[in-house]
Amino acid sequence: MQSESRVVALVATGGTIAGTAARGDDLVGYDAGALSAEQLTAAVPALAGEALETWTLARLDSCDLGHATWALLLRELQSRLARPEFAGIVVTHGTDTLEETAWFLHRTLAAPKPVVLTAAMRPASAPSPDGPQNLLDAVRLAREPGARGVLVAFGGKVYAGSELRKLHGWQLDAFSAGDAGAVALVEDGAFRRLRDWPAPELHPAPVGEVPPGRWPRVEIVTSHAGASGRIVDALVADGVQGLVIAGTGNGTVHTALREAAARALAAGVAVVRASRCLAGGVVGTTDGALPHYGAATPAQARIELMLDLLARRA
Ligand code: ASP
Q1: Does CATH place domain 213-312 in 1.20.1250.20?
Q2: Taking the model in full, what pTM does it have?
Q3: Pocket-testing residue among 40, 57, 60, 62, ligand 1, by greatest number of atoms within 8 A of Cβ
Q4: Where does substrate bind (predicted)?
């Protein structure tokens, strides 16, 4: 008989891992989130008889994820983490916004036990889906002694949630952690740790106390050849509260956008920059340059600015 602390809570939110297509060989035209948490675990024979508590929180294609789902997920995870019977928690999720949810949870959820996100690139109906192995690895990681923090189990690797980046639109090996690399490798069901489990970095924003409909509105604008800055003016006129400029290279921003950003700042809008490059983020700063959040991707920087604005408002 398993001890109580071996129980893993498993929450399904949708994604390709829970997706099914009408034809088994269709790897693109599927319904994301068609399967429930019970159906997902039933497809993994190695999980039969394991101590799991499953629930289906959402059946989303993660490209449609919204703040209300994050608020609900945060609340549910907090309440389960407080229960001593759980060794850890697994969250199944779509790959498209996995790095955003991972960052959001990393900054808002105190996780002294592992909270393991996992996903898949191939739907559950594929001849050779990647979801079942990723799910099995995630459940094992949720029980790994000493593990903690928001982690991602994907493709035989364990990433820190804060360092995740989706690199590829359809290949199996779709994720990386940029320069940081993986935290651990999965070797025949065991975890070979390459560095420490991620340390907590909780943001002070009172995110659980503010209804998601009142979270600050922050949008992303990309800098590119031929940028005009008019999109920034339109967003300011529309009442945006924060802007992330996804800059080129090391966070460089087209002059027209910089001028528009100055108008936005003068109107009281918070403006930061990030890099649209896949790795490296932004390093250093020059006089008068917009602030940045270092290695954060534009999507992660959007969350960070939203939390900063929420904290400032409190
Ligand atoms: N569109 C899907 C999602 O993010 C893609 C995936 O899960 O791989 O939900």
Answers
A1: no
A2: 0.96
A3: 62
A4: 62, 95-96
